Amino acid sequence: HDIGKPETAKKEKDSARPGGFHISFHGHEKVGAVKAEKILRRMKVSAAEGFNIKVEDIVWLAQNHLLPNSNSTAEMRPNTIKKYFLDNGELGRELMQVALVDAMASLRPDGGMDLDNWKALWKKLEVFKKIGPEKNKRAILSGDEVMKALKIKPGKQVGEILAALTDEQLSGRIQDKPAAIAWLRVRGQF
After folding, report:
1. Which is nearest to 78 in space by CA: 177, 169, 190, 188?
2. What's residue 89's pLDDT?
3. What is the Cα–Cα distance from 103 to 66, expressed in whole angstroms?
4. Quick one: DSSP state of residue 190?
5. Neighbour-count burial for 153-189, b at 16+ CB within 10 Å, e otherwise
6. First-to-last CA distance in the chain?
7. Residue by residue, what is the 3-state secondary structure of 153-173?
8. Would you state the pLDDT for residue 4?
9. Per-position pLDDT tens, the chain of length 190
10. What residues contact 158, with CB distance under 8 A and at least 6 apart?
11. Which residues contact 86 (CB under 8 A, 6 or more apart)?
12. Residue 61 Cα distances to 13, 39, 170, angstroms
């Protein structure tokens, strides 16, 4: 997953670090995903008998391995969590595993590990597990139901409303159709 680091390594000034600098690897996940795909296809890894290896899954893991440890996990929308960690549960679990070992191997300047973002995301995933997989997979209302409840026409606004509604659903604040329709009416204009 870190195969792209050599090409992206840059020495940056950092007065907080010993020696006054640190090495950054901005974009290594994208470079690494491209390199990994080329290598895996050249090696014909997906043809390995007795294994269910999907090159596209390995590439996806390499490209997204930083997500669970990013500073944005606190603000991550429930819909984003659903997309990356719930829609394909096994791949989402594998992403969390790769991110955990990656974080454990990356030490802060004081020598400790920084698992705070990973742990925060793990807690959010635990909440989603309590809500139940059936409510994590399907939207409570369809686009037609949203348009009927709000008396609006098809368009971009319906998609925005469905995304906001799905966030409320995944957060556990809305659990059934009557609550969803009431939420729509209280929210009014979007």
Report:
1. 169
2. 78
3. 9
4. -
5. eeeeebeebbebbbbbbbeeebeeeeebbebbeeeee
6. 40
7. CCCHHHHHHHHHHHHHHHCCC
8. 95
9. 899 999 999 999 988 887 899 889 999 999 999 999 999 999 998 887 888 889 999 999 999 999 998 877 778 888 888 889 888 878 999 999 999 999 999 877 788 888 999 999 998 888 777 766 555 556 789 999 999 988 889 999 998 898 888 888 877 788 889 999 999 888 865 5
10. 143, 146, 147, 152
11. 92, 125, 128, 133, 136, 137
12. 30, 15, 23
pTM above 0.90, yes or no: no
For residue 55, CA distances in Å to 31, 60, 66, 86, 149 come to 16, 9, 19, 20, 44
Q: Look at residues 149, 137, 152 and name the one whose alpha carbon lies nearest to residue 177.
A: 149
Q: Specify the amino acid at residue 142.
A: S
Q: Annotate 14-44 with DSSP letters as a single string.
A: -TTSGGGEEEE-TTHHHHHHHHHHHHHHHTT
d(Cα 135, Cα 52) in Å, to the nearest integer? 29
Which 8-state DSSP code applies to residue 176? Answer: S
Q: Region of 35 please: left (phi>0), alpha (psi -120 to 50) or beta.
A: alpha
Nearest to 137 by CA among 177, 164, 169: 169
Q: Which residues 6+ apart lie within 8 Å of 126 measured at CB?
A: none
Q: Which amino acid would we find at residue 178?
A: P
Could you give the count of Cα atoms lying within 13 Å of 130 in the half-sphere of its Cβ?
Answer: 9
Q: Where are the alpha helices (DSSP H) in 66-176?
A: 78-81, 89-105, 116-131, 133-137, 143-150, 156-170
